[in-house]
Amino acid sequence: MAKGTHCFEILMNDKLPGGSGAGLPGVIVAYGEDAFLRRESIDTALGLGGVDTEAVRSYDGEECKWVDVHDELATLSLFDNSHRVALVNSADKLLKDNRPQLEKWSAAAAEGSLLILMLGSFPSNTKLYKVIEKSGWLINCGLPTSSSRSKTPDLGALKKWIVAWGTKRHELKLTSAQATLILDAVGPDCGLLHQELAKLALYADDKLVLTDELIRQNVGSWRTRTMWEIADSIADGRVADALEQLQRVFAAGEHPAAVIPQISWSLRRFGNAAHLILQSKRTGQNLSGKAAVGFCGFWGADVALAEGRLRRMGLRRASKILQWLLELDLKIKGSHSTPSRAIFALEELCMRLA
């Protein structure tokens, strides 16, 4: 297959990485931060490959053991000759603990089996990456960028996806200018964009057309807009404002598990920018704050705002954001899984950035 197949090629064109006549490989890796794109890409690929999603055995990568996944893939059925499919969600830990076994399996997967790994990241300089590059499919499920070295989202590609996805999944006829309106209001989050397109489909006329005014009035619920405002308040150090807005959101019935990922996505960009600057200092390159935030998903007028917010936080504190977000994620999946304790953990993060 062509290496680095981006998920948009599958989702927009209904085209498998190996071509229209290619069968499914033994291993597929869908990697990238966008969980929505990972899920949609795999569902689409399985559908195009003729695999019934009900036949897929799913595993939690944080808890499952490789021996169980291996047995599922290697055990032949006496009554069914269809693909044996094992899908491992959040497979980063499974990969870390069983890299040699996965390398061996990927190089010579059992006939009729399909292993699907859903990963947050997958470095291209690893042996496993190179093995799967030759024998399986690698599907990049991150936001599209203008080049392999760039970390800034390609807004043009995102707008084309909004138009195509609106037509394919929501029966909407959007113009490029309307895609810009939607992207500006929601931000570069394909899961949220999908939800907003589904909502906008309810307002389309008989010809599946929307006016610009309808889009301005209805795109982005007050909750969606509030998430951006809360993230901005936290980044500005206006903790009282952030906590007050969070209280309103939770009082309206929003679950913390739905709020935290949106806020985390926004704050994570500051942590990434801080690490880029610190790394550049160690290598003697001295990357500017403006360049760093540009590499980490800010664009337009937000670049100057983000640079100022990063300066207010300070590199030392901003560099801890990724660790704090990881701690928050682990807490809400474990010790703080109840709504009340999850809210407490989020408030604690706000105080850390005060």
**If you consult CATH, what is the topology of the largest domain?**
Rossmann fold
Helix content: 55-70%
**What structural class do the secondary elements suggest?**
alpha/beta
If you compute it from the alpha carbons, what radius of gyration comes out, rounded to the nearest whole angstrom? 22 Å
Which residues form runs of ≥5 with pLDDT under 50? none
Individual helix count: 18
Task: Note the main sheet.
Answer: 6 strands, parallel
Biggest β-sheet: strands ordered side by side in the sheet: 1-6-2-5-4-3
- Give the overall silhouette: globular
Describe the structure.
Keywords: DNA replication, DNA-directed DNA polymerase, Nucleotidyltransferase, Transferase. InterPro entries: DNA_pol3_clamp-load_cplx_C (IPR008921), DNA_polIII_delta (IPR005790), P-loop_NTPase (IPR027417). By secondary structure, the chain is an alpha/beta fold. It has helices at residues 7-13, 35-48, 66-74, 92-97, 99-107, 127-135, 155-170, 176-186, 190-200, 212-218, 222-236, 239-251, 256-282, 289-295, 302-313, 315-318, 321-333, 339-352, and strands spanning 5-6, 27-31, 56-60, 84-89, 113-119, 137-140. The protein is 58% helix and 8% strand. It has a six-stranded parallel sheet, with helices on both faces. It has three domains: 5-140, Rossmann fold (3-Layer(aba) Sandwich); 155-220, Helicase, Ruva Protein, domain 3 (Orthogonal Bundle), CATH 1.10.8; 223-352, Zinc Finger, Delta Prime, domain 3 (Up-down Bundle). The N and C termini lie far apart (48 Å). It has 18 helices and six strands. The mean pLDDT is 87. The longest helix has 27 residues, at 256-282.
